[in-house]
Amino acid sequence: MSNATDWGRERERLTLVEAKLAAKIAELDPQVDGLHEQAADIRKRFWEEVTVNTSTSEDYEETFFSIRQQEAVLAERERSQRLLLRQRNNLRRLQASPYFGRVDFREAGESGEEPVYIGVSSFADEDAMSFLVYDWRTPVASLYYDHVPGPASYDTPGGTVGGTMTLKRQYRIQDGELRSVFDASVTIGDELLQQVLGHGADNRMKSIVATIQREQNAVIRDDRSRMLIVQGAAGSGKTSAALQRAAYLLYKYRDRLKADQIVLFSPNPLFNGYVSTVLPELGEENMQQTTFQDYLDYWLGKSFRLEDPFDQIEYALTQTEAPDYGARMAGMAYKASEAYRLALDAYAARLGEEGLRFAGIRFMGRELISAEDMAARFYGFDRSIRLPNRVALLQEWLLRELAALERKERKAQWAQEKAQYLDRGQYAESYDELLQEYRRDEGIFMFAEQYVEADDAIHNRRERVEDVFDLADREEALLRKTIVKERFKPLRRSVKRLKFLDFAGMYGRLFESGSAYAELTNGTDAPAEWAEICRQTAEKLNRRELFYEDATPYLYLKELIEGVRTNTQVRHVFVDEGQDYSVFQYAYLRKLFPHARMTVLGDFGQAIFAQATELGGAESPLLRLYGEADTNVIRLARSYRSTREIAAFTRAMLAGGEEIVPFDRPGPKPLLVRTESGDARAKRIAADLAALTAEGFGSVAVVTKTAAEAEAARRALAACGREDARLIDKASPSYEKGIMVIPAYLAKGVEFDAVLIHDAGEEAYAQESERKLFYTACTRAMHRLTLYAAGAWSPFVRALDPALYETAAEPIGPRE
Ligand SMILES: Nc1ncnc2c1ncn2[C@@H]1O[C@H](COP(=O)(O)OP(=O)(O)OP(=O)(O)O)[C@@H](O)[C@H]1O
């Protein structure tokens, strides 16, 4: 900042804004409380205010309208209470730090310039005309993120506003005190960013609102593309930008977009908690968060035991010696491919002509409706009707058939016997139901009887003795009806759930042989390992289990046949760690959320699962998902998480890594420590942990390759007195501050002050397929990275320039 006068002015202004804030809050507080009481009061008196009188139709109408009116009053009060509450809370959030930025902007053609102060929420002066603080999401605030002093412009709904920015300033205000002021020139807030990034990691992600970078702002404010793909290096702020983007959309479209219309797909359940505080910190409600696995479990979990992606990756990492390993890995890759998706499309088309498998409906050991009958009926429908619609027609037919069969069944011997010997205890429920039904029917019957009697009396007819109903017979008939109905219930339910289609059988048919596969899928070539893939898949299906790589294709095929499920409410879908989803999963998400725009954030450099999809490259299938014209790809090359030294070390492991630009925050180089394995290693790690804690690092992760290694490491550390090292596995509810022992694949998306790679030896990370896992593990570190190995180092380390790291103990193993 230029001089002391400026500092003085800024302090004065801050004091002024704070005073106005305090005054406004003091004004709003009693109103909020008052409204709260009023609403509670109305709710309490709700029934007192309405006249409940239903004796005549006018009375009924009056009652109806009086209830409606009370409801409307209550709803209005609650709405204004919500608005006031929100306004008050926004102001309270401003209190500790009313703004973080300022731009002075002179609009073209105007003589004066106006200072625009930017904060997490807007705050207007008494006259409600001049803004003391602008919300960071307002159009004018984008000047702050997108431009440096000089010619500048911003977009508004009415068009672009051009002019000149004469000043850009940043503030650090804590607890209402002005701590520092920076005048920014080239990039936004390098100084401020330095300070922010220098802090320790938290077990929760933080908002980056004060220091959003220009390219991140493009991600946040893109509201034109149907599909926004963000390919960004590790630590480039993809997740941060995604959360800011959600907050931006909720602000910009606040009159029509609600938080529950945005869904975030997270890499694992732990991650949900990790990001859950950002939106509330920005004054917005949280969006819906889920994982793809949750979705699969919901739809397939009742029919199959599903493998999850973590078991799949454990297999990939640990079973390399298994005889079926190669085929399984080839299967994983193939089952995630576009080729397989097209094959399933072809298969579904064929099933429209022939081959749909049905499961006959059996009842008490008899076949009521056979699979052949169903097939005959199904293929008898007009073939031009779409497959799912024909399935619906068949379903209707089956329900009608069942109703007829049910009526017939009431006369069956077994039903008569059951009715006679009905054990009321055993059939308590059905008996109660029976009684209810009986009473209802009896009521109707009595009424009908009375009517007939009255009618006869009026018309002077004789009593019709022969029609008098035999109540005992009737009770028995009702009993039989109820018993049969009860027995048919599961049949009806399973027809409603389309259980008459043998999906497992149909999916299984694909895995009978290579030639069968080609025949069913319009000549698709299967991978070379198909025979073994068939064996593995069929074995799983027979046990009512599904590999992770089969779950989405299975669901995909199922929906081609029975029709797609859609959620038309959701408007935005965010997919984080998007490289870990298959093309299938994307095609599926697109169908599932037909009215949503999609934002995919990921890093192909961290693609650790077999089903990975390239995101931004020319060949990326994602470009075609909504068509290239509706797709925007943004690349984030600057990496903020790690120190310059750690980023230099990690980026050198990746082909094309030189494109990653580390943020210039210095720190010690990564340290390579050669130790013995077992106890000696645990002792050394325990000592290093103590040193890191002494240095003030609050979150430290010992990162392993597999779950078994993590468990062993935890035990060894506990034996060395570090019982506080907590094991994180896929069932852990949350990441916590402190010391964690965690497999790399569960550390995706999160970060730690210090990362200790438990075993960076060549046994652990040698295969090309493990490179990205190793890279992912190392890039979790913010300030310190230490690697341990007992024997030779992983080839990924050996290939690095020694200038990129320090070594403790002896020199590292032979170089390649
Ligand atoms: N503009 C920014 N201002 C301040 N901090 C930032 C900014 N951008 C990113 N960061 C910080 O950098 C770190 C990494 O961000 P984030 O986790 O969003 O990156 P990512 O791209 O999702 O990483 P990964 O792919 O490795 O999971 C976080 O600590 C985040 O707060």
Automatic annotation (TrEMBL):
Keyword Nucleotide-binding: yes
PROSITE patterns the UniProt entry points to: UVRD_HELICASE_ATP_BIND (PS51198)
Stated name of the protein: UvrD-helicase domain-containing protein
Chain positions recorded as ATP binding sites: 232-239
SUPFAM superfamilies noted in UniProt: P-loop containing nucleoside triphosphate hydrolases
Species this protein is from: Paenibacillus artemisiicola
Source domain of life: Bacteria
Domain UvrD-like helicase ATP-binding residue range list: 211-643
InterPro entries (alphabetical): DExx_box_DNA_helicase_dom_sf (IPR013986), DNA_helicase_UvrD/REP (IPR000212), HelD_bacillota (IPR048228), P-loop_NTPase (IPR027417), UvrD-like_ATP-bd (IPR014016), UvrD-like_helicase_C (IPR027785)
Keyword terms: ATP-binding, Helicase, Hydrolase, Nucleotide-binding
Pfam families, per database record: UvrD-helicase, UvrD_C_2
